[in-house]
Amino acid sequence: MHSTFPLDRRRLLSAGAAALLTGLAGCNDSESVDPGAPTDQAPAGTGVLVRGDTAQLYGTDASAAREATERLLAAYGGGAAGADDDAGLVADFESRTGLSVAEADTVVIFADEPRGEFAAYVVDGEWSEATVADAVESATGLAYEPRDHEGGTVYEPTDGGPEADYLGSVADGRYAVGSEAAVEAAIETARADRESASGAVAGALADAGVTGDDTPATSVVAATDDPRAYLPPDDDERVPDIASLDVYELATVGTVAYATDGSSVAVDAELRADSRSDARQMADFTVTVRSFLRNDADDAVAAELSNIEIDQDDDVVTISYRGDVEGAAVLAGYL
To answer: Do the Cβ atoms of 83 and 77 come closer than 8 Å?
Structure first.
């Protein structure tokens, strides 16, 4: 299994839009610790941070909410070796761990940079350590050996090469799956003196959320200090010849908040800049791109593009979308 999280965003909306995991298998009897919030396991220097509230995603039996989430967050997928980039955040997590996202409480993804090799899932759930270890072994087809790390447990694959996932038991009910260094870092934030992520990315994630009356509860939020990396390159066929998306390099932090109740969809993305003038440049460019795409698209897509609102408040640009599941899928498929 692949230990990196490409987070290969290729869509303007979903880019501005997915992240997901003591007992008999343990090799030590460490005392219980309070690891804090799951996002606290992201170490200082984190450049990509995603949090998924599975109670919101799976609080209903309606499969439409989950299907909508998969479609609109598909740009986060492709973490497993050989996986389709459109596998989706949830499918990728489940294929790598053998665990059901629906049984988790909160899922977090952190990485040092977009498509960085230093990356991991962090998940809260009521699984025992033995259950998680067995599930990962079954999903990967690899054998794992436990070892102590700062009072936690790291499960190291005995084969599978450098791309094989590592498993970490951070604390009771909290686990990390990803690259060796990232899994060890997650344990160190809870059990050693390693600092958790703070600053612009962590602060932006904490502030992110879908706003407005009559909108569903926010289910997924994401933040990055390199939003341009999630947009297509300028030579991509979806980018107009007269445009350069490099203007989004003016954004120092980008966030996305996503919500769905199975029938309606709400997305709020923010681009934060160093100055009001930089924000104005990004806002004006985004308005131009929306107009170009609307004129170039068929009627169904053009109608959904009209549901995108672009606003600027000082040094922050907000891009909002409100629509239904079907319309959002049409838009995501076009972008």
So the answer is: yes
